[in-house]
Amino acid sequence: MKRRTSPADRANRPNRSYTLIAGCVLAGLIALLALVSLVWLPYAADDTSGGRLTGPAADHLLGTDKLGRDLFTQAMTGSRIAVEAGLGSVLVAAAIGVTLGVLSAFAQGWLDDTLSAFLDILIAFPTLLLAMLIVAARSATLGSAVLAIGLAQSAVVARLVRILVKRVLAQDYITAARTSGTSWPRIVAGHVLPNIWPTLVVNLALQFGLAVLAEAGLSYLGLGAPPPNASWGRMLQEAQATFTTAPAGALAPGILLVLLVIGVNLVADGLRDTLDPATRRRRA
Amino acid sequence: MTLLDIRGLTVRTADGRTLVDDLSLTLGPGERLGVIGESGSGKSLTTLAVLGLLPEGMTATGSVELAGTQIVGATEKRLTTVRGRDAAIVFQEPLTALDPLMRVGRQLAEPLRGKRRLTGGALKRAVAEALEQVRLPEPDRIARAFPHEISGGQRQRVALAMALACEPKLLIADEPTTALDVSVQAEMLALIDTLVREREMAVLFVSHDLAVVAKVTDRALVMKDGRAVEEGTVERLVRAPREEYTKALVTSARRLESALDLRSAP
């Protein structure tokens, strides 16, 4: 492929990839912890042999909690749950949001109004309340939390997709495709989705970070994954009472949470710069 | 037999404003008609109505018969068979006429696959042929390029190739040269002229520029505020305009031309 690189382009490129690389490293570290936790953990989740609130030591890197469980083990399990919550919520949000968004972009008259009103209500509806309703209807599991967060986020995604699709549909090349006898499903798959993808994927990356935070909030309130699965939110909640004597219990999940969210946001930022059609136009 | 027969076409917005008012025109096979008017005169909407492509919320009443098919009120399915086969459009803006994320060759293949049912090697050859027909150099390279990698004039040629791909009986050109610079504009007009002549296609050529219309068509319709003001040969319109508005158009075109002449005089 031919490259036409302007000096300004060359100057900008390293910055861009640094953002993306930094984000990937941060988020990747947490993802690595999560992956390792699937096959190996320093201690079993219910192993209380460590003595209570020992503080960081060689055999317990982050110390133990008030029941004598290893905090590093909990932090690892927590990162797995955080990544699962983020991925799951974004998948739910993308599946529902893109479908509803494309539909409402095509809808006219009362259907358009109804869908818009529905999305507005869903956006205004507190995620917490939605989560409590779903937990009440099902049970307090990670799945319930993911469903609640994904549903709440799908409204935001749908509204974004609706606007993006409308903007693409107004372009002459869509009219040209219709003139060529291309069917609507083909136009959506071939022209619309590829053109909204760059903006959409950046938004989904941001939603991932928000979902991780929301899951931590829900499990802090006891609406997330049930024990003995340690989620960062619940670790924070459990360490709250002993924060002054054993700060590691609250600091570890807190710092990991911040790292993951910053990492994902950096990835979103880096993606925006590399995927944006305007900059891509110059790069390609 | 007429190819395009528009009778009493009226286009209204959802809130009841009339944008095209009781417009009638006819076009025989192989005939060329220019539609002249300032922006907002309803000329572009008229062309969109011919293919049933009016923007959301606008409604057409009256009658638009294209090659024997009634367009007003036709189902989308019916329209899909008519579009491309009976008439195709070239738009004004070469930047938005092509999908920025799709290679030129794939876009050009769309009408060929959709309408002429070509696949595989035959499709590839047809794409290269279509690009050669619009006098694009290195058709292979252009087929692999993204729209932003070729010039505005080249993009407009690709758009023309897409419109011609299904060999429509009527080519609708909506200000196809307005966004191009003057030298490219002349080439493009000459190209349209030859291609249409070779294929004995009818042309509906929309422009705000009398001089441009005069280069392609010999008959023209003047539109103002959604109404047809005057119709006749371009020569007659220039020499003996009957309506005030046509007179004003001609005078302003003359004034521009003489101003340019004065400048280029030594």
- Please identify the oligomeric state: heterodimer
Q: From the 3D coordinates, which CATH architecture of chain A would you assign?
A: Orthogonal Bundle
What's the CATH first level of chain B? Alpha Beta
Number of domains of chain A: 1
Q: How would you sum up the global shape of chain A?
A: elongated
Q: What is the fold named in CATH at topology level of chain A? A: MetI-like fold
- Per CATH, the class of chain A reads Mainly Alpha
Summarize the main sheet of chain B: 6 strands, mixed
Main location (chain A): membrane
Transmembrane segments (chain A): 20-43, 85-106, 118-136, 142-161, 200-223, 243-268
Domain ABC transmembrane type-1 (chain A): 79-268
Organism (chain A): Streptomyces sparsogenes DSM 40356
Give a concise summary:
The complex is a heterodimer of chains A (284) and B (266). With 284 residues, chain A is mostly helical.
Question: Could you walk me through the main structural features you see in this protein, from its secondary elements to its overall organization?
Answer:
The complex is a heterodimer of chains A (284) and B (266). Chain A is mainly alpha-helical and 284 residues long. Chain A has one domain (18-37, 67-283): Orthogonal Bundle (MetI-like fold), CATH 1.10.3720.10. Helices cover 75% and strands 0% of the residues of chain A. In chain A, helix 1 (7-39) packs across helix 9, helix 2 runs parallel beside helix 5 and helix 2 packs parallel to helix 9. The longest helix of chain A is centred in the C-terminal third of the chain and has 37 residues, at 184-220. Residues 1-15 of chain A have low confidence and may be disordered. Chain B is α/β, with parallel strands linked by helices. Chain B has a single domain, classed as Rossmann fold, CATH 3.40.50. Chain B has helices at 43-50, 76-82, 104-116, 120-133, 139-144, 152-164, 182-199, 210-216, 234-239, 244-264, and strands at 4-12, 18-27, 32-36, 59-66, 69-70, 87-90, 170-174, 202-207, 219-224, 227-233. In chain B, strand 9 (219-224) and strand 10 (227-233) form a beta hairpin. The radius of gyration of chain B is 19 Å and the shape is globular. Chain B starts with a strand and ends with a helix. The mean pLDDT of chain B is 87. At the A-B interface, helix 6 and helix 7 of A face helix 3 and helix 6 of B. Chain A: Belongs to the binding-protein-dependent transport system permease family. Chain A: This is Binding-protein-dependent transport system inner membrane protein. Chain A: It is found in: Cell membrane. Chain A: It holds the Pfam family BPD_transp_1. Chain A: Its main location: membrane.
